[in-house]
Amino acid sequence: MRFSEIARRGGLVERSKRRFVLVASVLALVTSMVTLPVLEGTSSATSFKGSITIAAVAPFTGADAALGPKYETACYAAAQEINASGGVLGNQIKCKTVDTRGDPADAVPAVRQMYATTSNLALVIGCTSDEAATVVPIFQAHKTVAFCMTGQSEFDAVHFPYFFRLVPPDAADSVAMVQIAKRHSFKNIALAFGNDAGSQTFVAPALAAIKRAGMTVVSNQTLDMSASTFQSEAQAIVQSHPDAILMEALGAAGVALLAEIYQLNGNKMIPTIGTSAMIDPVFFSGVTSSAIGTQTFISNFDADNQTVKSSGPAYPLYHKLVLEQAGKVPGVPSFPGLLTANGTVHLYDGINLAALAMVMSGSTQGSKYKADILKIAEGQSGAVNVSNFAMGAKDLKAGKKIHYIGVGGTYQFDSFQTAFGPFEDDQFLANGTTVAVGGTLGYCSLTVCKSTP
Known about the structure:
Layout: H1 3-25, E1 50-58, H2 67-84, E2 91-99, H3 104-117, E3 121-126, H4 132-141, E4 146-148, E5 163-164, H5 170-183, E6 188-194, H6 197-200, H7 203-212, E7 216-223, H8 231-239, E8 244-248, H9 252-264, E9 272-274, H10 281-288, H11 294-299, E10 301-306, H12 315-323, H13 342-361, H14 366-378, E11 384-386, H15 389-397, E12 402-404, E13 422-428, E14 434-444, E15 449-450
Parallel strand pairs: 1-2, 1-3, 3-4, 4-5, 6-7, 6-8, 8-9, 9-10, 11-12
Antiparallel strand pairs: 10-13, 13-14, 14-15
Helix pairs in contact: 1-4, 2-13, 3-4, 5-7, 8-9, 9-10, 13-14, 13-15
Protein backbone atom coordinates (compact mmCIF):
# COMPACT_ATOMS: atom_id res chain seq x y z
CA MET A 1 0.00 0.00 0.00
CA ARG A 2 1.40 3.39 -0.93
CA PHE A 3 2.04 5.90 1.85
CA SER A 4 -0.22 8.39 0.06
CA GLU A 5 -3.10 5.91 0.25
CA ILE A 6 -2.54 5.36 3.97
CA ALA A 7 -2.46 9.10 4.53
CA ARG A 8 -5.65 9.60 2.53
CA ARG A 9 -7.50 7.03 4.58
CA GLY A 10 -6.17 8.43 7.85
CA GLY A 11 -7.25 11.86 6.72
CA LEU A 12 -10.72 10.55 5.96
CA VAL A 13 -11.10 9.34 9.54
CA GLU A 14 -10.14 12.74 10.89
CA ARG A 15 -12.44 14.51 8.43
CA SER A 16 -15.28 12.21 9.47
CA LYS A 17 -14.75 13.20 13.09
CA ARG A 18 -14.73 16.87 12.17
CA ARG A 19 -17.93 16.48 10.14
CA PHE A 20 -19.65 14.92 13.16
CA VAL A 21 -18.67 17.85 15.34
CA LEU A 22 -19.80 20.22 12.60
CA VAL A 23 -23.25 18.61 12.32
CA ALA A 24 -23.78 18.93 16.06
CA SER A 25 -22.51 22.50 16.45
CA VAL A 26 -22.76 24.52 13.24
CA LEU A 27 -26.46 25.18 13.74
CA ALA A 28 -25.62 27.97 16.17
CA LEU A 29 -23.31 29.59 13.63
CA VAL A 30 -25.65 29.66 10.65
CA THR A 31 -26.64 33.11 9.49
CA SER A 32 -27.69 34.64 6.17
CA MET A 33 -28.53 32.69 3.00
CA VAL A 34 -28.50 33.21 -1.15
CA THR A 35 -29.79 30.96 -4.76
CA LEU A 36 -29.55 29.61 -8.27
CA PRO A 37 -31.88 30.00 -11.23
CA VAL A 38 -35.26 28.28 -11.06
CA LEU A 39 -36.18 25.43 -13.38
CA GLU A 40 -39.96 25.51 -13.26
CA GLY A 41 -42.04 22.37 -13.61
CA THR A 42 -44.94 22.10 -16.03
CA SER A 43 -48.55 21.88 -14.93
CA SER A 44 -51.85 20.94 -16.49
CA ALA A 45 -53.81 22.67 -13.73
CA THR A 46 -55.56 25.85 -14.79
CA SER A 47 -56.10 27.77 -11.56
CA PHE A 48 -53.63 28.45 -8.76
CA LYS A 49 -53.54 31.08 -6.06
CA GLY A 50 -49.75 30.98 -5.93
CA SER A 51 -46.72 28.72 -6.07
CA ILE A 52 -44.29 26.92 -3.79
CA THR A 53 -40.77 25.77 -4.60
CA ILE A 54 -39.12 22.40 -4.10
CA ALA A 55 -35.32 22.60 -4.38
CA ALA A 56 -33.14 19.68 -5.41
CA VAL A 57 -29.90 20.36 -3.55
CA ALA A 58 -27.32 17.97 -4.98
CA PRO A 59 -24.32 17.60 -7.32
CA PHE A 60 -25.20 18.54 -10.91
CA THR A 61 -21.57 19.02 -11.90
CA GLY A 62 -18.37 17.38 -10.65
CA ALA A 63 -17.56 13.75 -10.00
CA ASP A 64 -21.03 12.90 -8.67
CA ALA A 65 -22.99 14.85 -11.30
CA ALA A 66 -25.05 11.75 -12.14
CA LEU A 67 -26.93 12.09 -8.85
CA GLY A 68 -28.61 15.45 -9.43
CA PRO A 69 -30.69 14.49 -12.50
CA LYS A 70 -32.17 11.52 -10.61
CA TYR A 71 -33.50 13.87 -7.94
CA GLU A 72 -34.61 16.52 -10.41
CA THR A 73 -36.61 13.88 -12.29
CA ALA A 74 -38.34 12.90 -9.05
CA CYS A 75 -39.37 16.51 -8.51
CA TYR A 76 -40.71 17.03 -12.02
CA ALA A 77 -42.61 13.72 -11.92
CA ALA A 78 -44.25 14.35 -8.55
CA ALA A 79 -44.98 18.01 -9.34
CA GLN A 80 -46.68 17.08 -12.62
CA GLU A 81 -49.20 14.85 -10.86
CA ILE A 82 -49.72 17.16 -7.88
CA ASN A 83 -50.24 20.23 -10.06
CA ALA A 84 -52.65 18.33 -12.30
CA SER A 85 -54.64 17.49 -9.16
CA GLY A 86 -55.05 21.14 -8.15
CA GLY A 87 -51.72 21.69 -6.46
CA VAL A 88 -50.93 21.92 -2.76
CA LEU A 89 -53.58 24.02 -1.04
CA GLY A 90 -54.11 25.74 -4.38
CA ASN A 91 -50.39 26.36 -4.93
CA GLN A 92 -48.49 25.15 -7.96
CA ILE A 93 -45.22 23.32 -7.32
CA LYS A 94 -42.12 24.64 -9.06
CA CYS A 95 -38.89 22.63 -9.14
CA LYS A 96 -35.47 24.21 -8.75
CA THR A 97 -31.92 22.87 -8.85
CA VAL A 98 -29.11 23.96 -6.54
CA ASP A 99 -25.73 22.62 -7.63
CA THR A 100 -23.47 21.68 -4.70
CA ARG A 101 -20.82 20.28 -7.08
CA GLY A 102 -20.42 17.48 -4.55
CA ASP A 103 -18.21 19.70 -2.40
CA PRO A 104 -19.09 21.20 1.01
CA ALA A 105 -17.10 24.33 0.15
CA ASP A 106 -19.37 24.96 -2.84
CA ALA A 107 -22.55 23.69 -1.19
CA VAL A 108 -22.75 26.23 1.62
CA PRO A 109 -22.68 29.39 -0.55
CA ALA A 110 -25.05 27.74 -3.04
CA VAL A 111 -27.57 27.02 -0.29
CA ARG A 112 -27.18 30.50 1.15
CA GLN A 113 -27.88 31.90 -2.29
CA MET A 114 -30.94 29.67 -2.53
CA TYR A 115 -32.44 31.16 0.60
CA ALA A 116 -31.63 34.72 -0.42
CA THR A 117 -33.47 34.58 -3.73
CA THR A 118 -36.13 31.83 -3.46
CA SER A 119 -39.63 32.71 -2.41
CA ASN A 120 -42.01 30.20 -0.84
CA LEU A 121 -39.42 27.44 -0.42
CA ALA A 122 -41.47 24.56 0.99
CA LEU A 123 -39.20 21.53 0.73
CA VAL A 124 -35.64 20.43 -0.04
CA ILE A 125 -34.78 17.07 -1.61
CA GLY A 126 -31.44 15.49 -2.47
CA CYS A 127 -28.70 16.50 -0.05
CA THR A 128 -26.11 13.76 -0.56
CA SER A 129 -23.27 12.53 1.63
CA ASP A 130 -20.97 14.90 -0.23
CA GLU A 131 -22.47 17.97 1.43
CA ALA A 132 -25.10 16.94 3.99
CA ALA A 133 -22.96 17.60 7.06
CA THR A 134 -22.64 21.28 6.13
CA VAL A 135 -26.06 22.05 4.67
CA VAL A 136 -28.48 20.17 6.93
CA PRO A 137 -27.83 22.56 9.85
CA ILE A 138 -28.65 25.44 7.50
CA PHE A 139 -31.97 23.80 6.58
CA GLN A 140 -32.63 23.39 10.30
CA ALA A 141 -31.97 27.05 11.02
CA HIS A 142 -34.57 27.98 8.39
CA LYS A 143 -37.03 25.28 9.54
CA THR A 144 -37.00 23.72 6.07
CA VAL A 145 -38.07 20.09 5.76
CA ALA A 146 -35.41 18.13 3.86
CA PHE A 147 -35.53 14.60 2.44
CA CYS A 148 -31.85 13.76 2.06
CA MET A 149 -30.09 10.87 0.34
CA THR A 150 -27.09 10.94 2.64
CA GLY A 151 -25.80 7.74 4.16
CA GLN A 152 -23.40 9.35 6.62
CA SER A 153 -23.24 7.82 10.08
CA GLU A 154 -23.39 11.26 11.71
CA PHE A 155 -27.13 11.27 11.11
CA ASP A 156 -27.54 7.98 12.98
CA ALA A 157 -26.85 9.74 16.27
CA VAL A 158 -27.85 13.41 15.94
CA HIS A 159 -31.53 14.32 15.74
CA PHE A 160 -32.56 17.10 13.38
CA PRO A 161 -36.33 17.70 13.52
CA TYR A 162 -36.58 18.81 9.88
CA PHE A 163 -34.34 16.05 8.47
CA PHE A 164 -35.90 12.90 6.95
CA ARG A 165 -34.09 9.98 5.35
CA LEU A 166 -36.11 7.47 3.32
CA VAL A 167 -33.11 5.20 2.78
CA PRO A 168 -30.90 3.46 5.37
CA PRO A 169 -27.36 4.68 6.14
CA ASP A 170 -24.47 3.61 3.93
CA ALA A 171 -23.43 1.14 6.62
CA ALA A 172 -26.61 -0.85 5.93
CA ASP A 173 -25.97 -0.51 2.19
CA SER A 174 -22.50 -2.03 2.71
CA VAL A 175 -23.96 -4.92 4.70
CA ALA A 176 -26.38 -5.60 1.82
CA MET A 177 -23.49 -5.64 -0.68
CA VAL A 178 -21.65 -8.22 1.41
CA GLN A 179 -24.87 -10.24 1.65
CA ILE A 180 -24.90 -10.43 -2.15
CA ALA A 181 -21.26 -11.58 -2.10
CA LYS A 182 -22.17 -14.32 0.40
CA ARG A 183 -24.96 -15.54 -1.88
CA HIS A 184 -22.41 -16.00 -4.66
CA SER A 185 -19.96 -17.71 -2.26
CA PHE A 186 -17.29 -15.10 -2.95
CA LYS A 187 -14.40 -15.26 -0.49
CA ASN A 188 -11.71 -12.86 -1.70
CA ILE A 189 -12.95 -9.31 -2.10
CA ALA A 190 -11.42 -6.20 -3.64
CA LEU A 191 -12.73 -2.74 -2.76
CA ALA A 192 -12.75 0.20 -5.19
CA PHE A 193 -14.42 3.35 -3.87
CA GLY A 194 -14.10 6.95 -4.99
CA ASN A 195 -12.32 9.50 -2.81
CA ASP A 196 -15.47 11.64 -2.58
CA ALA A 197 -17.17 11.76 0.81
CA GLY A 198 -20.29 10.03 -0.51
CA SER A 199 -18.34 6.96 -1.60
CA GLN A 200 -15.91 6.77 1.29
CA THR A 201 -18.74 6.39 3.82
CA PHE A 202 -19.15 2.81 2.55
CA VAL A 203 -15.58 1.66 3.13
CA ALA A 204 -15.35 1.16 6.90
CA PRO A 205 -18.77 -0.58 7.14
CA ALA A 206 -17.85 -2.80 4.18
CA LEU A 207 -14.55 -3.80 5.80
CA ALA A 208 -16.36 -4.69 9.02
CA ALA A 209 -19.09 -6.65 7.21
CA ILE A 210 -16.52 -8.56 5.15
CA LYS A 211 -14.65 -9.52 8.32
CA ARG A 212 -17.87 -10.69 10.03
CA ALA A 213 -18.68 -12.82 6.97
CA GLY A 214 -15.30 -14.59 7.13
CA MET A 215 -14.18 -13.14 3.80
CA THR A 216 -10.79 -11.62 2.98
CA VAL A 217 -10.03 -8.18 1.58
CA VAL A 218 -7.29 -8.71 -1.00
CA SER A 219 -7.14 -5.14 -2.33
CA ASN A 220 -8.50 -1.80 -1.15
CA GLN A 221 -8.25 1.00 -3.71
CA THR A 222 -9.23 4.65 -3.23
CA LEU A 223 -10.00 6.24 -6.59
CA ASP A 224 -9.21 9.84 -7.45
CA MET A 225 -12.53 10.89 -8.95
CA SER A 226 -10.88 13.68 -10.92
CA ALA A 227 -8.62 11.21 -12.76
CA SER A 228 -9.34 9.83 -16.22
CA THR A 229 -7.32 6.63 -15.93
CA PHE A 230 -6.84 4.07 -13.15
CA GLN A 231 -4.11 1.81 -14.50
CA SER A 232 -2.27 1.34 -11.20
CA GLU A 233 -5.46 0.68 -9.24
CA ALA A 234 -6.79 -1.68 -11.91
CA GLN A 235 -3.48 -3.55 -11.99
CA ALA A 236 -3.45 -3.91 -8.20
CA ILE A 237 -6.96 -5.34 -8.26
CA VAL A 238 -6.25 -7.80 -11.08
CA GLN A 239 -3.02 -8.99 -9.45
CA SER A 240 -4.85 -9.63 -6.16
CA HIS A 241 -7.09 -12.20 -7.93
CA PRO A 242 -10.37 -11.30 -6.22
CA ASP A 243 -13.56 -13.33 -6.58
CA ALA A 244 -15.47 -10.05 -6.72
CA ILE A 245 -15.10 -6.28 -6.54
CA LEU A 246 -17.25 -4.11 -4.27
CA MET A 247 -17.35 -0.59 -5.62
CA GLU A 248 -18.84 2.86 -5.85
CA ALA A 249 -17.38 5.21 -8.44
CA LEU A 250 -20.00 7.18 -10.29
CA GLY A 251 -19.93 8.36 -13.88
CA ALA A 252 -16.78 8.27 -16.00
CA ALA A 253 -14.53 7.10 -13.16
CA GLY A 254 -16.42 3.85 -12.66
CA VAL A 255 -16.51 3.23 -16.39
CA ALA A 256 -12.77 3.83 -16.77
CA LEU A 257 -11.86 1.56 -13.86
CA LEU A 258 -13.94 -1.40 -15.04
CA ALA A 259 -12.74 -1.02 -18.64
CA GLU A 260 -9.10 -1.04 -17.52
CA ILE A 261 -9.65 -4.03 -15.22
CA TYR A 262 -11.31 -5.85 -18.12
CA GLN A 263 -8.36 -5.20 -20.41
CA LEU A 264 -5.69 -6.15 -17.84
CA ASN A 265 -7.64 -9.30 -16.93
CA GLY A 266 -7.42 -10.76 -20.42
CA ASN A 267 -10.72 -9.25 -21.60
CA LYS A 268 -12.64 -10.90 -18.78
CA MET A 269 -14.80 -8.96 -16.34
CA ILE A 270 -14.37 -9.69 -12.65
CA PRO A 271 -17.78 -10.02 -10.95
CA THR A 272 -18.67 -6.64 -9.47
CA ILE A 273 -21.15 -5.57 -6.79
CA GLY A 274 -22.09 -1.90 -6.79
CA THR A 275 -23.92 0.33 -4.35
CA SER A 276 -27.50 1.35 -5.05
CA ALA A 277 -26.22 4.67 -6.45
CA MET A 278 -24.68 2.72 -9.34
CA ILE A 279 -28.11 1.81 -10.65
CA ASP A 280 -27.61 4.73 -12.93
CA PRO A 281 -28.25 5.19 -16.66
CA VAL A 282 -25.07 7.26 -17.14
CA PHE A 283 -22.91 4.50 -15.67
CA PHE A 284 -24.78 1.77 -17.58
CA SER A 285 -24.48 3.62 -20.88
CA GLY A 286 -20.76 4.22 -20.39
CA VAL A 287 -19.84 0.64 -19.47
CA THR A 288 -21.94 -1.00 -22.17
CA SER A 289 -20.43 1.34 -24.77
CA SER A 290 -16.92 0.29 -23.74
CA ALA A 291 -15.05 -2.84 -24.78
CA ILE A 292 -16.85 -4.75 -22.02
CA GLY A 293 -20.13 -4.67 -23.93
CA THR A 294 -23.66 -5.17 -22.73
CA GLN A 295 -23.91 -8.92 -22.25
CA THR A 296 -20.62 -9.31 -20.40
CA PHE A 297 -21.48 -6.41 -18.12
CA ILE A 298 -25.00 -7.46 -17.19
CA SER A 299 -23.82 -11.04 -16.57
CA ASN A 300 -21.22 -9.89 -14.06
CA PHE A 301 -22.72 -6.91 -12.25
CA ASP A 302 -25.07 -6.80 -9.26
CA ALA A 303 -26.12 -3.87 -7.09
CA ASP A 304 -27.89 -3.76 -3.80
CA ASN A 305 -31.02 -1.65 -3.80
CA GLN A 306 -33.99 -0.99 -1.60
CA THR A 307 -37.04 -2.91 -2.72
CA VAL A 308 -39.17 -1.18 -5.35
CA LYS A 309 -42.84 -2.16 -5.33
CA SER A 310 -43.17 -2.54 -9.11
CA SER A 311 -46.34 -4.58 -8.62
CA GLY A 312 -47.83 -2.12 -6.14
CA PRO A 313 -50.60 0.41 -6.80
CA ALA A 314 -48.22 3.42 -6.82
CA TYR A 315 -45.94 2.09 -9.53
CA PRO A 316 -47.99 2.48 -12.77
CA LEU A 317 -48.45 6.22 -12.27
CA TYR A 318 -44.83 6.64 -11.19
CA HIS A 319 -43.67 4.72 -14.28
CA LYS A 320 -45.75 6.96 -16.54
CA LEU A 321 -44.62 10.19 -14.90
CA VAL A 322 -40.89 9.36 -14.93
CA LEU A 323 -40.92 8.46 -18.63
CA GLU A 324 -42.79 11.69 -19.40
CA GLN A 325 -39.85 13.72 -18.07
CA ALA A 326 -37.67 12.71 -21.02
CA GLY A 327 -36.39 15.87 -22.65
CA LYS A 328 -37.00 18.01 -19.56
CA VAL A 329 -34.02 16.88 -17.47
CA PRO A 330 -30.55 16.99 -19.04
CA GLY A 331 -27.91 14.40 -18.27
CA VAL A 332 -30.14 11.31 -18.34
CA PRO A 333 -29.34 8.99 -21.28
CA SER A 334 -32.23 6.61 -20.48
CA PHE A 335 -35.25 7.48 -18.36
CA PRO A 336 -36.34 3.83 -18.01
CA GLY A 337 -33.05 3.41 -16.15
CA LEU A 338 -34.38 5.71 -13.41
CA LEU A 339 -37.44 3.60 -12.64
CA THR A 340 -35.62 1.67 -9.92
CA ALA A 341 -32.96 4.28 -9.06
CA ASN A 342 -33.32 4.76 -5.31
CA GLY A 343 -32.91 8.54 -5.48
CA THR A 344 -35.77 8.90 -7.96
CA VAL A 345 -38.03 6.35 -6.27
CA HIS A 346 -37.72 7.56 -2.70
CA LEU A 347 -37.64 11.28 -3.36
CA TYR A 348 -40.77 10.94 -5.47
CA ASP A 349 -42.37 9.29 -2.43
CA GLY A 350 -40.93 11.96 -0.17
CA ILE A 351 -42.45 14.77 -2.20
CA ASN A 352 -45.85 13.07 -2.08
CA LEU A 353 -45.53 12.59 1.68
CA ALA A 354 -44.62 16.23 2.21
CA ALA A 355 -47.35 17.52 -0.11
CA LEU A 356 -49.99 15.43 1.65
CA ALA A 357 -48.71 16.60 5.04
CA MET A 358 -49.11 20.18 3.84
CA VAL A 359 -52.72 19.44 2.93
CA MET A 360 -53.31 17.69 6.25
CA SER A 361 -51.85 20.58 8.27
CA GLY A 362 -53.29 23.32 6.08
CA SER A 363 -49.84 24.90 5.73
CA THR A 364 -46.79 24.85 3.44
CA GLN A 365 -44.50 25.89 6.33
CA GLY A 366 -42.19 23.14 7.51
CA SER A 367 -42.72 23.94 11.17
CA LYS A 368 -46.44 23.26 10.77
CA TYR A 369 -46.51 20.23 8.46
CA LYS A 370 -43.44 18.16 9.42
CA ALA A 371 -45.15 16.23 12.21
CA ASP A 372 -47.85 15.04 9.80
CA ILE A 373 -45.24 13.40 7.53
CA LEU A 374 -44.73 10.66 10.12
CA LYS A 375 -48.48 10.19 10.62
CA ILE A 376 -49.07 9.73 6.89
CA ALA A 377 -45.99 7.56 6.29
CA GLU A 378 -46.52 5.22 9.22
CA GLY A 379 -50.32 5.25 9.30
CA GLN A 380 -52.65 5.90 12.19
CA SER A 381 -55.47 3.79 13.54
CA GLY A 382 -58.32 3.80 11.05
CA ALA A 383 -56.26 5.28 8.22
CA VAL A 384 -57.09 4.39 4.62
CA ASN A 385 -54.30 3.39 2.25
CA VAL A 386 -53.48 5.77 -0.60
CA SER A 387 -50.89 5.45 -3.36
CA ASN A 388 -50.75 8.94 -4.89
CA PHE A 389 -51.35 12.59 -4.07
CA ALA A 390 -54.76 12.86 -5.71
CA MET A 391 -56.19 9.97 -3.67
CA GLY A 392 -54.67 11.24 -0.45
CA ALA A 393 -55.77 14.85 -0.90
CA LYS A 394 -59.33 13.74 -1.66
CA ASP A 395 -59.51 11.56 1.46
CA LEU A 396 -57.98 14.26 3.66
CA LYS A 397 -60.53 16.78 2.45
CA ALA A 398 -63.22 14.24 3.32
CA GLY A 399 -61.92 14.17 6.88
CA LYS A 400 -60.24 10.77 6.67
CA LYS A 401 -56.87 9.66 8.01
CA ILE A 402 -54.50 8.36 5.34
CA HIS A 403 -51.55 5.97 5.10
CA TYR A 404 -49.32 6.57 2.06
CA ILE A 405 -47.91 3.42 0.46
CA GLY A 406 -45.55 4.54 -2.28
CA VAL A 407 -43.28 3.12 -4.94
CA GLY A 408 -40.81 2.29 -2.19
CA GLY A 409 -43.55 0.67 -0.10
CA THR A 410 -44.20 1.76 3.48
CA TYR A 411 -41.84 3.85 5.56
CA GLN A 412 -41.24 3.29 9.28
CA PHE A 413 -38.88 5.81 10.87
CA ASP A 414 -36.51 5.44 13.79
CA SER A 415 -35.95 8.17 16.38
CA PHE A 416 -33.60 9.99 14.00
CA GLN A 417 -36.23 9.93 11.23
CA THR A 418 -34.42 7.36 9.10
CA ALA A 419 -36.47 4.64 7.41
CA PHE A 420 -35.00 1.13 7.19
CA GLY A 421 -36.62 -0.89 4.39
CA PRO A 422 -35.87 -4.28 2.81
CA PHE A 423 -33.05 -4.66 0.29
CA GLU A 424 -32.89 -6.62 -2.93
CA ASP A 425 -30.21 -7.77 -5.36
CA ASP A 426 -30.69 -5.94 -8.67
CA GLN A 427 -29.20 -6.83 -12.04
CA PHE A 428 -29.33 -4.77 -15.21
CA LEU A 429 -31.24 -5.93 -18.26
CA ALA A 430 -29.98 -5.18 -21.76
CA ASN A 431 -32.26 -2.14 -22.07
CA GLY A 432 -30.79 -0.47 -18.99
CA THR A 433 -33.63 -1.26 -16.60
CA THR A 434 -33.10 -3.57 -13.63
CA VAL A 435 -34.71 -6.68 -12.22
CA ALA A 436 -34.53 -8.10 -8.70
CA VAL A 437 -33.04 -11.60 -8.49
CA GLY A 438 -32.91 -14.24 -5.81
CA GLY A 439 -35.62 -12.89 -3.53
CA THR A 440 -35.18 -10.32 -0.80
CA LEU A 441 -31.88 -9.73 0.97
CA GLY A 442 -33.87 -8.89 4.07
CA TYR A 443 -33.84 -5.83 6.29
CA CYS A 444 -30.20 -4.84 6.58
CA SER A 445 -29.15 -2.91 9.68
CA LEU A 446 -25.71 -1.48 10.42
CA THR A 447 -24.38 -4.99 11.06
CA VAL A 448 -26.66 -7.73 9.70
CA CYS A 449 -29.49 -8.56 7.28
CA LYS A 450 -32.58 -10.15 8.84
CA SER A 451 -35.85 -11.43 7.43
CA THR A 452 -37.89 -9.01 9.56
CA PRO A 453 -37.30 -5.39 10.63
